[in-house]
Amino acid sequence: MGRRRMEFVIANLLLTLIAAAGSLVVGALVLNRVPLGDSPGTAKRLWTYLSTHVAETRRQHVFPELELRCYRVPPGRLHERVEHVVNMLGWELVETKPAEHTLHAVVTSQLLKFKDDVEIKLVLADCGTELHVRSSSRVGRGDFGANAHHVMELHHALERLL
User: Fold this and answer.
1) How high is the pLDDT of residue 1?
2) Closest CA to 106 of 122, 124, 93, 120
3) Per mean pLDDT, which range of 1-10, 54-63, 104-113, 137-146 is the poorest?
4) Is the peptide bond preceding residue 35 cis, with omega within 30 degrees of 0?
5) CA-to-CA distance for 148 and 33, rounded, in angstroms?
């Protein structure tokens, strides 16, 4: 095979690999149903989803869907509801400590089958019971929005139940 032919084959192979990687990224973002167009903007969200492996709720979060939520339900009752939601979502409940109002679940990602840890802590507050959620990937630095999706999925299912 001539040199030009070899360069052509390598160039096509590289283009194919780049297209496949791009398709994988787009597919993961679509499966995770992340709100790319929402505040604080597509560029900030893409950078975050491609460079971090943790999504955590907190007050005044830059991503509205990760804002700390508070429910007018006692911690014990909310713990029961959260445990029910975790099971309903098909997540693996690894540990639950009702007396401490904490849960640990593992979620297996749809596309790549990676395992993500979801830590949930309920805290009594003036507003009722705060729901602190931290979802983190075990592998890699970018999660394609999977962890934010886990938090959003938990919030939506819990709100439907309450």
Assistant:
1) 67
2) 93
3) 1-10
4) no
5) 9
Q: How far apart are CA 113 and CA 145, in angstroms?
A: 14
Residues 6+ apart with CB under 8 A from 69: 57, 130, 131, 155
Check residues 66 and 144 and name the one with the higher pLDDT: 66
Residues in the chain: 162
In DSSP terms, 122 is beta-bridged to 131
Query: Whole-angstrom Cα distance, residue 50 to residue 52?
Result: 6
Residues 6+ apart with CB under 8 A from 149: 32, 33, 34
Strand 102-108 and strand 54-56: the pairing is unpaired
The residue written with tokens 């990602």 in the block is 109
Whether the full predicted model's pTM is greater than 0.85, yes or no, is yes
Residue 12 is encoded by which pair of tokens? 């096509």
Over its C-alpha atoms, the chain yields an Rg (Å, rounded) of: 20
